[in-house]
Specification:
Structural class: alpha/beta
CATH topology: Purple Acid Phosphatase, chain A, domain 2
Order of helices and strands: EHEHEHEEHHEHEEEEEE
CATH class: Alpha Beta
Number of strands: 12
Mean pLDDT: 96
Number of helices: 6
Oligomer: single chain
CATH architecture: 4-Layer Sandwich
Strand order of the largest sheet: 3-2-1-10-11-12
CATH superfamily: Metallo-dependent phosphatases
Helix content: 10-25%
Number of domains: 1
Length: 286
């Protein structure tokens, strides 16, 4: 049985990347313009009946002081907000690195949110990286090792601005997916880095994580940012949606409203973000 009433509606923003900086004309990024774009997105979201608004990382381009104006605008949201950091959010003073997750209102770097019968798994794609862990943390050494191995293999995502996750986090994701399968609940995973299809922006652990997600009957979608041009692919009935970066272009915005129905997921895109209708397979329907 299907219905035209969505069971969950989410506002989606990726990569506002605000900073009080002149534009980067080579990459077509207009950092100061992101505040006006955020205000427009908040105004639209407040006109909708939403269960939450997600920001999928890179709230700022760099500099701790740039969080304040972004968070002030997001304070105007009527719906609850779920924020997670991207690689640029860690380009702050070294003594501020351990404050990032608290500043974004996160209870932990990776955690679960239950929302109207759907589990949202907030993943920590920057867990093992050259920028998020404090200096001297063993995760930085692990990141250096992984990146060197990827470069040796000629991997397209062997870049310092990508990152990876630990075996412990993989185990946690597997356990949460299995628990959702046992209870007949749907899961949407949230991350900053794409995991499928492969590109120069994917998470270092992309293949393993994508296979884990696609192998779960509870998983509906994985939502991310990081690759500002956006992307989409389907794997075993799971929808991998990479949302466009808000910071790109001087005037055109990019954000979306995602609605989950019994038989489909609809994405109403704004500006550079396209509309999508994503069918739910029989095995994914409850």
């Amino acid at each position: 049985m299907t219905t035209d009433t969505p069971c969950l509606r989410l506002g989606i923003i990726a990569d506002p990347q605000y900073a009080d900086l002149d534009p980067n004309l080579v990459s077509d990024r207009y950092f100061r313009r992101s505040l006006d774009k955020l205000r427009a997105a908040v105004d639209h979201f407040n006109s909708q009946d939403l269960d939450a608004v997600l920001v999928l990382g890179d709230l700022i381009d760099r500099g701790w002081e740039n969080f304040e104006p972004v968070l002030e605008i997001l304070d105007g949201l009527e719906a609850p907000r779920i924020l997670l950091p991207g690689n640029h959010d860690f380009l702050v003073e070294p003594d501020r690195l351990t404050d990032i997750h608290a500043a974004l209102g996160m209870p932990a770097p990776y955690h679960e949110v239950e929302l109207k019968g759907v589990r949202l798994l907030v993943t920590d794609g920057s867990e093992i990286s050259l920028f998020a862990p404090p200096e001297g943390d063993e995760r930085r050494a692990e990141a250096e090792k992984r990146l060197a191995e990827l470069k040796e293999k000629g991997a397209p995502n062997a870049h310092h601005w990508n990152a990876g996750i630990s075996d412990s986090q993989i185990t946690w994701i597997a356990e949460r997916l299995a628990d959702a399968e046992a209870s007949g609940e749907d899961v949407i995973l949230l991350g900053h880095y794409p995991v499928y299809p492969s590109s120069d922006h994917t998470l270092w652990d992309a293949e393993e994580l994508a296979a884990l997600i696609a192998g779960s009957s509870s998983a509906l979608a994985y939502l991310c940012g990081h690759h500002h041009v956006g992307n989409y692919a389907e794997l075993n009935g799971v929808h991998f949606v990479n949302f466009c970066g808000m910071v790109d272009t001087e005037h055109e915005n990019a954000f979306a409203v995602l609605s989950v129905f019994d038989d489909r997921i609809e994405i109403a895109g704004h500006g550079r973000e396209p509309d999508r209708r994503l069918e739910r397979t029989i095995t994914k329907q409850r």
